[in-house]
Amino acid sequence: MSERALLCHMNILLADGSTADSTRAAGKPARLNIGDGSLSPAFEAQLAELHVGDRHSFTLKPADAFGEVNPDAIHHLDRARFAADMELKPGVIISFAGPGGAEIPGIIRDVAGDSVTVDLNHPLAGHTVTFELEVMQEL
Question: Can you list the domains of the chain with their CATH numbers?
C-alpha cells in the first residue's frame, strides 16, 4: 500500500461509552499516516476507503488499538528517584526520558512506603475502544 495521510477529527470511546480522548476538545485534528507502520493493520484497514467529508465509526480490540497491558512496563521505583517536592499519588502522570530523548509518560499506580509503582503502558492499553472519525483533509 502506498503511503498517504488523513487529517481527522477523532473521538475515542471506551466500552462504557465514555470519551477517553477527543481531538475536537483540543481543537486540533489528528494526522493518521497510512502505510508507514505507525498504525495497526486493523486500524489501517478501516481507513483504506475514507476520503474528505467521510464519517466512520469502528471498534478495535486492545491488540489492534493501543496494545495489551505489558507487565514488563510496570516498574517499582525507589521514592529517592523522584524530586522531594513531587506529588506522588495514584493517577499522577510523570514524564520519563526515553531512548533518543523521547518523553515517555508514566502513571503512578501505587505508593507504598519508599516504593512507587509506575505504569509505562499506554493509558488505553488493554481496552477495547471505539473510534469515531471525520476526515477533514487528505495529505
Answer: 4-67+124-138 (3.10.50.40), 71-119 (2.40.10.330)
